[in-house]
Amino acid sequence: MLNQFLLLAAILFSIGVYGVIARRNTVMVLMSIELILNAVNINLLTFGAANADVAGAVFALFVIAVAAAEVGVGLAMVLIIYRNRQSVDLDEVDSMRG
Amino acid sequence: MVAQNIFFYVIAAGMVGAAVAVVTTRNVVRAALYLIAVFAGVAAQFILLAAEFVAVTQVLIYIGAIMVLMLFGIMLTRARIGRDVDMTNDHWWVGVGTALLLAAVMAYSLIDRWGDDPLPTERQINAVAGSNTATVSDSIFSQYLIPFEIVSVLLLAALVGAIVIARKDR
């Protein structure tokens, strides 16, 4: 049973990594990052339940709080990019590319 | 235990299907709604792991605040009606290869190390008042007090930073 939770977390993590690499819309990339963070939370709570330790739940709460802060700042940046360029296409934001 | 296994597999299948739909659909609003389905499935898995406080916090903060914020972001950055922007960039096959390789390596190492360990059937950590939530709160306010205060300062910094970034220039 321990194994199935960990495998579920690994699969969600990989799907999130694919989303971060392959999506063009910036909000979609932020959503994929949230998928990755949820996979990490499942992992933390699984090991917390396996070792009868509440540190897993405490750390998962901190991860949720940090994810909320990150989404707030990330969406503010998305709004600024949209205001300046009228598009959130990540392929067009390449002025620093060599 | 059999009922827990059945529920786990049903919810896990729904979650993986919704997650794949998040990263492959062409419609941003549909992706947001599929992501809400993933978050609800994650909260159900937290209940299966006897972490009820984290499950309720997940529903409140992820579905109730973060997804609403993302839907506002989608609303404010929508392309003009009629222009169909392709969602996947040209190097999507790099993403597929990376994700498959990552999943294969993680699955092999997880099965190799923890393939035989079962989760304990009694998942109630009765340290304080016979409840997991009381134990978590006791732990936050005694052993993990400093990270708790630092997370508060982090949230304040993120709040002020988001307002400063997104305000209109005078």
Strand and helix map with partners:
The complex is a heterodimer of chains A (98) and B (170).
Chain A: H1 2-22, H2 26-50, H3 55-85
Helix pairs in contact in A: 1-2, 2-3
Chain B: H1 2-24, H2 28-48, H3 52-76, H4 92-114, H5 132-142, H6 145-166
* Uncertain residue segments of chain A: none
Q: What is the CATH-assigned architecture of the largest domain in chain B?
A: Up-down Bundle
Strand content of chain A: under 5%
Number of domains of chain B: 2
Spatial separation of the terminal alpha carbons of chain A = 49 Å
Q: What is the rounded Rg of chain A?
A: 17 Å
Overview of the molecule:
The complex is a heterodimer of chains A (98) and B (170). In chain A, helix 1 packs antiparallel against helix 2 (26-50) and helix 2 runs antiparallel to helix 3. The model of chain A has no long low-confidence stretch (mean pLDDT 89). Chain A contains three helices and no strands. Chain A has one domain (2-89): Helix Hairpins, CATH 1.10.287.3510. Chain A has 98 residues and is an all-alpha fold. Chain A is elongated and about 50 Å long. Chain A has helices spanning 2-22, 26-50, 55-85. Chain B has 170 residues and is mainly alpha-helical. Chain B folds into two domains: 1-79, NADH-ubiquinone/plastoquinone oxidoreductase chain 6, subunit NuoJ (Four Helix Bundle (Hemerythrin (Met), subunit A)), CATH 1.20.120.1200; 129-170. Helices cover 74% and strands 0% of the residues of chain B. Chain B contains six helices and no strands. The N and C termini of chain B lie far apart (62 Å). The model of chain B is unreliable at 80-84 (pLDDT under 50). Classes of the chains: A mainly alpha (98), B mainly alpha (170). The interface between A and B is large, with 72 and 88 residues.
